[in-house]
Every structure is written in structure tokens, then in C-alpha cells.
Design goal:
two-stranded antiparallel ribbon; alpha+beta; 4 strands
Amino acid sequence: MVIAGQETRVRPNLGLFTQPLSFIGLPVLCVPVQRPGALPLGVQIIGAPYSEAVILRVAAVLEAQGIVSAELIGP
């Protein structure tokens, strides 16, 4: 992947922003934002320890409002 003109290896950086939070016990959920015709973007929802149900409800509300979607866009 090329970011700002620099090649970045994808695999080593996949969990860069989620693994530290998961490691200390915080539930983390990343949901894709709908942006037809634009680059992919995700929203990271981080909850208090043992609040998985809360972050899933937040994601469900964002999906119901049409802000995020797990549907594939494109071919």
C-alpha cells in the first residue's frame, strides 16, 4: 500500500491501532463508513472492559442511521 508516496507493508500494520487496546482488555470494533466513490474509511469504537454489548449496540445504531455498513460496495 502506498501512503503519502511511501510504500507501507500492510500485514504488519493491520492491528497497529486495535491490538494494544485489545491486549489491555478493552473491546474494540471497527466498522466501515459508507463513502461511495471515496477511499475506504473505518470508525473505531472502543468500550470499557466487558462492554462488548454496548459497542455492538453503538454499531447497530450507526448502521440503522445509514452511517456505516458491512455491505460490499462495488463489484
